[in-house]
Structures are given as structure tokens and as C-alpha cells.
Amino acid sequence: xxxxxxxxxxxxxxxxxxYSAMNDPAILKQCIPGCEEIEERSDGExxxxxxxxxxxxxxRFRGKVRLFDRDPPNGYRLVGEGEGGVAGFAKSSAVVALxxxxxxxxxxxxxxxxxxxxxxxxxxxLLMSTxxxxxxxxxxxxxxxLTEPSRAELEAKPQ
Length: 159
What we know:
The protein is an alpha+beta fold. The chain has helices at about 15-20, 25-30, 125-145, 150-155, and strands at about 1-10, 35-40, 45-55, 55-70, 75-85, 90-100, 105-115.
């Protein structure tokens, strides 16, 4: 089953900061919903384990993502694939673009995904709404990670 998803978010941080964060495994781990583990295997290649819930189906996916056409701090294209055992598989590609706005950075993305197995049996409407919800959660987490003061900053301030 094929899915086409697009979105746009404004992140209150500079393009360079957003681009750097979206390439940092520690930040990605705290932003990706259900992310249990993520590591950078080589420059621009990541491996991850992510737990997903699609309606009644819960699955743990092992996957990898590779970044292409990197143009710091303007964006990149990514290609990923994941295996969820009996739950099925997912393959995707996306283009992420960053642009300056008065509020910080406008991030837009367009993603094409193909899923198979039990996941595909859930129906396109459920998959689309769940995927969109996960994307929204990722970007909310990213905004929080880039705007909330860190514990170290709070501890360094005089009382």
C-alpha cells in the first residue's frame, strides 16, 4: 500500500540549528515517537529500533535511514526501510527542506511510503492518520528539544 504524506512546521530556531538537530542521534532519539535505540553507522546513515502502534497492531521495527543530496543547512533527501517481523515492512523516501522565517525555520517535508504485511491490512485511513500523528509528535518534540532550557543551563544559573 502506498502512502503520500506532506507537512510543514515552524521551528523557533535557526536553520543551522534545526539541520544539526535533525542529524544528531541523541536529539533524534528523544524526538522520534517510540524510538528505543538509534545510532549513526556512518556519515549520513542511521540504524534504529522503533516501537510503533497502528491501531490494534503493535510492532517493533528495525530499520535504517540514509541521507542523500545533503545541502546544509537547507535540507536533504532521505531513504529508509524497516522490518517489523509479522507486522510487515515499510520503505520510504522523503525530501526535507528548511527555509528562514521571521519565527525561525520553516521545515517542509514530502514523503512517499510503501507498507506491506499486516500493517497494510489496517487500511489507508488509519495508516495516514497514525503516520501524520507520529510526524506531528516528532516535530513537537523537536521544537521542545530546541527551545526548552537544558538541565545544565538551569543548574548554571545563579539562584
